[in-house]
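Thread: quick sanity check before group meeting

JM: Hey all, I'm pulling together slides for Thursday and realized we never actually wrote out the predicted structure for the chain we discussed last week. Dropping the sequence here so it's in one place. If anyone has concerns about the input, flag it before I start.
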Amino acid sequence: QLRLVESGGGLVQSGGSLRLSCTASGKTLEHYVIGWFRAAPGKDREGVAFNGGFDKSEYYPDSVKGRFTISRDNDQRTFYLQMNRLKPEDTALYYCAAAFKGVLVIDTKDFDYWGQGTQATVFS
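JM (edit): ok, ran it. Output follows.
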């Protein structure tokens, strides 16, 4: 059974950076699509970064493109979300997720494994 645990959230001033980590146990992630989602109060869960397991393709929505970067460790047990030039509207509970898919997927319903979430708060 694959388990995911996030870390690295915190409080940062607008314009600053945070790096979130997601550590996997039980299995390695080389054949999994990995993703980061966020949930802000009163809003639906939103996907912010994705990386394919087989072709390593990536996807970012316009809201974070150029500011957020997803990456994996070579050991395929840890992946990251580097968040730069943060804005107050990036404040949310951030979740990592994994899906055993052969193509890149970006919808919450396609992900089978989820972490518990880590809070990132950006103040102005």
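AS: nice. The longest strand covers residues 18-25. The chain has no helices and eleven strands.
JM: adding both to the slides.
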